[in-house]
Amino acid sequence: MAKTVTVTLDGKTVQAQEGSTILDVAKREGIHIPTLCYTHLLRPLENCRLCVVAVEGEKQFKAACSTPVRDGMIIRTSGSDLAQTRKLLLELLLDTHYGDCVAPCSVTCPANVDIQGYLALLRHGEYLEAVRLIKEKIPMPATIGRVCPHPCESACRRHLVDEPVNINHCKRFLADFEIKSGVRILPQVPPDTGHHVAVVGGGPAGLSAAYYLRALGHGVTIFEAREKLGGMLRYGIPEYRLPKKILDWEIEGILSLGVHVRTGVVWGRDFTLDDLKKEGFGAIFLAIGAWASRKLGIVGEELEGVESGVDFLENIAAGRPVKVGRRVVVIGGGNVAIDAARSALRLGAEKVTILYRRSRKEMPASHEEIEAAEAEGVEIHLLAAPTRVLGDNGRAQQLEFIRMELGEPDASGRRRPVPVEGSETLLDADQVISAIGQYPVLLTPDQDPSMEKIPVTRWSTIGGDPRSMHTGAEMVFVGGDLFRGPMTVVAALADGRKAAYSLNRFFQTGRVEPEPLHFNISKGNLDQIDKEPFGVYKVIPRERMPELEVSQRVKNFVEVELGFDEAKAHREAERCLVCGCSAAFDCRLRELMNEFQVDWREQPSKKIHFQRVAAIDTHPVIALDPNKCIRCERCYVACQTFQCSDAIDFKDWPRFNAKCVSCGLCVDLCPTGALMERRQGRPVERLDWTSVPTHCIHCGYGCELDLKVKGQRLVWIADGRDTVPNRASTCRRGRFRAYDDHWRGQRATRPMVRENGELKEVSWGRAVEAAVQGLRAVAQKHGLTSVGALGSPRYTCEGLYLLQKWMRTRFGTPYVDTLGRKTAEAALRHALIPTERPSVVHPMSDLAQAQGILLIGERMEETNPVTVTAVRRSVRSGRTPLWSLGQLPESLRAMAAVDCGAQAKNWPQLLASLAMQYAEKIGEKAVDLLKETLGEEILEALRAAPLEAVEKNALEGVVRGMSAVGGVAVVLDLAALEGLSEPEIDHAIKAVQALVSIMKEHAKKDGSGLFLAAPYANAVGACLVGMNPKMLPGRVSFEDAEAVARLRELWDGASIPQCPALDVPEALQEGHFRALLLQDSALWQEGLPQVWESLSRLDFLVLQDNLLGPAAQWAHVVLPTAAFGEQEGIMINQEGRLLALHQALGRNGESLPDWDGISRLMAADGAAFPKSLDSVYQEWARLFFDGAVADWNKAAAEKQRLANLLAKA
């Protein structure tokens, strides 16, 4: 038993095992010590030193990951000195880190919308999920997609290639799709918190605050002075830019969350802030906007015909009678001025002129709006300022203006306009619209005493914190134009969200806390960034927004911009350069930067030239960006000591060599975005995902995987656990090949029937009817046994059970089979649940305890790579000898003490000879056991059959080696046995079973075990549920009359065909079959090519598949099947361990789970069919467990009993 020591950890006395590190003890005690390079999979690296702690008596801080505790040690894990040291270490790490955490467009956006993320989702067709992502930051994307000035586009790095991405119009496309889809993307409102907020003002800031407050469960009432909600969105932006039906639709969505509204109530007239407090509101958010117009300050401003742009636009929006002059002059250069000018044209003005006192470059209005106004006929006089309005009989007739020139920059950074003496000019103008700015109308303390405590700025706005939106006055928050002055809608929407967050924290803690600022490092702005890499990008024209013709639009207020169609939106989203780091959401370095509040920084100095990066970034499935590498060396050490592939060379940064097996471990361990999955030539964009656990289906091991999903899209796949079975190891097949059904080939998405020689899409009803009719026609013409089914060992137990039941009970054919059935059945019969003696099969997780390993395999690096990794890891230590009777992978050859190199066809004899030699060495009882298992005749034949000298020497070496160590793991590759006959397979498996039994029972090597390495995930499960021509479900023998009778009773008295003389593949090759239902055709093409070659000779072929592969050329009916991650179900692996599959993704098109497709065939054939998975489970309960199970989902014991069939063994 390990010795314990006593240490003091942050003032607490604790007991710890001697040899434990400080970090181990701290974790056990729930004390957080930050780490970066540490992982429990590897020896401590000490490269980052972030885990430093103070140990009494030590002059320097010690690394907690590598420092063992000792008796009496006094340890301190926190303190300002440690925090400062850790922060300094992090800042030093940044010196070798070059990249962008977040794309510059998102950083520039006032609402910090994840633009790169929603463009990625748009590219992949995840439109509603893209809307959901947008609404995490702004609740009104359809509105903002029409009116936003899109400052994000000014920061777009596509400027350095051609033109910026048309971000805003992509956003509008997504929002319009939501409206047309009939599906509202809204948050799930949690239970009421009991807190209530009064939102004063129903404009964009108030609506946004209401949306996010309700999403947090707080009660909200909006107090709005006007008749309807919307503020400037409704009363300040014309219909041709923002149709009110769009605005109303988005407001309806916000109100549907449970927001209360009081309209026609004015702050100061109908209520004060004290009134709201007395009414029970726990906080107030002020967002009344900026409705007062600034005066021109010139002679004649009081004349009739002179009015403000805000009043002019509001009267139009409210439906009041509005008259316009023949010649209208608009003063100003912002969006209000442009909107007023374009609206005047639509109301019948003959000529509209805009005067602006600065240059065109400095006009605040968006350049698109300026160009649209000019296209419609609005004249713009730049560097012109009004000096007076001249009138007749009290009405404006002319406007005098003076020319300006630009002088020195003023406080805003813009060059100050200076009058040019003597340049006065007259313009005819019977209407002058002033649009030079607005400001909020604030109450005085006489109107509301609470104003005494609320800060007011010199710009007539309410002051506050721009991050928390708190005014500093008790529970009053502020946002929108009331806080900023007249600004953008997107800034107002952001203010509402920020206020909601702060209000929520205020209710939870009593403190005002703003949204956290997440650390960001940037390559710099457009002027700073290294421009050379952008020269490699192809110039792609920016998509233009289609618009109504000028002649059509100037006569009415119909929306001018028509919106992107799907093709335009996709092309534009494809132009995104993906500037932000794809690992930003799970970057460990960034997490620590946030934890220690390291300051943002721009780091425009390139580290490694892009051409050198391109030269080494050549891995087919892993993207390498050495500029982001911080030299932690986790990837390098893990590949050496855990994966044991030696596939990474490390000098300054990692480089892959030819030994890489694409396990993906380095990607999982990389704490930055230096190593990422590559898909379709670019790093996978790890959006903020949902993680769904499941099991891999690509070999018999059944590794646990986590499917990282955004919406209905598989973003990436990670190792599921750092515990058994796979212990943080995956392989190329599980990590990257699982994408196959989603990225490779043409997905089968709709049922198809061959008509006039061509496959045509039809309904499911038509497809299953055609399938049943076709199979029936062949059966009637050629007999029942002319029909059969070949199932997939990657399909679920549920689907395979129904398939064999349908074939047996309705067609009377025994021809049901699956790949890997021969070896799986032999493994069940002789190893997993043998009748002779206890099973010696061990789970692969026990391999690490072996003191010697006997490997019998071929091509295992391809068929069972995780098993090979586990063997390498055990042998690499030098303490575990390896002996091989098969053909070793290259990575193991140099490590083997014995390398026989025998082909699989020789294994039965070799294994029996090995067992015999070992038994004879142990003694008479061991020989008797072997005789009992293999039979006297086989042993006599072995004694008479001479071995090759190489084989004889190899066996002698193995026997000597096994005798010299303790527990021996015998790893048997079932894939290599697939090419042998059934008697040969039985022979080989019985021999290894006997060998291990002798070790355990007679040599007293208790740690010995048999480890089966199967090529298919569910071959064992398929045998157990009856996808076996020679056994019935539950491995019931055809000779067991009682069991067969019971099965017939459960199957409503159906007759059960007898065991056939031939296997299905053999019968197919010999021409016995005329019709076939085939699952997962690509797997059959790979696993048994001779079956593939027989398909073209069939009279009728039903293909149940998720891919339209080459077999579709012979198919008469195609039934689309859900792919990996798109359905639930169970499989049973090589160890008899149950693998639960979980659905993470929506099914593609009209594809169905494998069991549901068979169920529909059964229904079309007039058979009783299950309507749900639970119906299948209840049938299993009666079949396998002599009774019903009330709730199968909770019946874990029953599920595992199915896995090993202990009830029948």
Automatic annotation (TrEMBL):
Keywords: Iron, Iron-sulfur, Metal-binding, Oxidoreductase. The keyword Metal-binding applies. It comes from the Bacteria. PROSITE patterns: 2FE2S_FER_2, 4FE4S_FER_1, 4FE4S_FER_2. Residues 620-650, 652-680 form the 4Fe-4S ferredoxin-type domain. Pfam families: Fer2_4, Fer4_20, Fer4_21, Molybdop_Fe4S4, Molybdopterin, Pyr_redox_2. Residues 3-81 form the 2Fe-2S ferredoxin-type domain. GO terms for molecular function: iron-sulfur cluster binding; metal ion binding; oxidoreductase activity. SMART domains: Molybdop_Fe4S4. InterPro entries: 2Fe-2S-bd_N (IPR042204), 2Fe-2S_ferredoxin-like_sf (IPR036010), 2Fe-2S_ferredoxin-type (IPR001041), 4Fe4S_Fe-S-bd (IPR017896), 4Fe4S_Fe_S_CS (IPR017900), DPD_II (IPR028261), FAD/NAD-bd_sf (IPR036188), FAD/NAD-binding_dom (IPR023753). This is Formate dehydrogenase major subunit. It comes from Desulfosoma caldarium.
